[in-house]
Amino acid sequence: MLTERELERYDRQIRIFGVEGQEKLKKAKVAVVGVGGLGSPVAYYLAAAGVGTLLLIDEQTPELSNLNRQILHWEEDIDKNPKPLSAKWKLERFNSDIRIETFIGKLTRENIEEILADVDVIVDCLDNFETRYLLDEFANKRGIPLVHGAVEGMFGQVTTIIPGKTKCMREIFPKPPKKKEKFPILGATAGVVGTIQAAEVIKLITGYGEVLANKLLIVDLAHGSFEIVSLG
Amino acid sequence: MKVKFYATLRDLTGRKEIEISGVKTVRELLDKLDRMFPGIKKELIDEDGDVNGMILVNGHNIVHLKLWDTELKEDDVIHLFPPAGGG
Fold first, then answer.
1. Is the separation of the CB atoms in B55 and B1 below 8 Å?
2. Which value does ipTM take for this structure?
3. Are A32 and A54 in contact (CB under 8 A)?
4. pTM score of the predicted model
């Protein structure tokens, strides 16, 4: 049941999803894996939308060069507050009705079952494909939808993986790109791609609209283009 | 066939898409593209000789087809993407 305060807070989106949709959001638990450039807007907008429980996962602590894009981390967090805690502090002050859980560390084959035990949706905001493949395997095994996003420079991509219905990540991206220690990235690119990922999560939970299932959205801000490639 | 370029490959080619004919495989296509746009092969093939980024033929990754020997028809659509792995 939504409280009077929640009915008012979410009024403008209840006009899209209905009270029932908002209740689904409240009951949902979403794992945001990687709380950096993509994870910041994803967690921010999911908190804004009233997703009941967010699980933030990251092993890093913010560095100065992260701040051009990782908008949940501020100067005061540099070299001090691990990313999940830095984000939790802001999100709890932004929306006190939701619950923020954190895991500071890396997901591994050994711990993934326990950490992601009860999540409804997983959001891939990672910066490496090794952990992405691990998430992909877990999501497939457990039948949990996985929203993939990746960015570089002024372009990026989004697709939603639904086990049993769409191709899995390893089928779409069979070989990881070489991991670069330092890659070019504009904050606005991560903002656009992450915000689209957040919208995918909200559609998955509420059942509204249609998600990017077997569709790869390519966002190219340098050339002002959004294109969808069918993967079916 | 239609070849569509994305992101940094648009910078390299100066084009969003082109029509190409007279190539029978992905290997021949890349050779032809590299003559038109020198350096594009280097962007799409890594040092191990594997695909870097994505090469899709009608939405199917060539890694799941016959890789460089994947046959092409005149009405195919080929999408070429540079890799994006950051978050």
1. no
2. 0.88
3. yes
4. 0.95
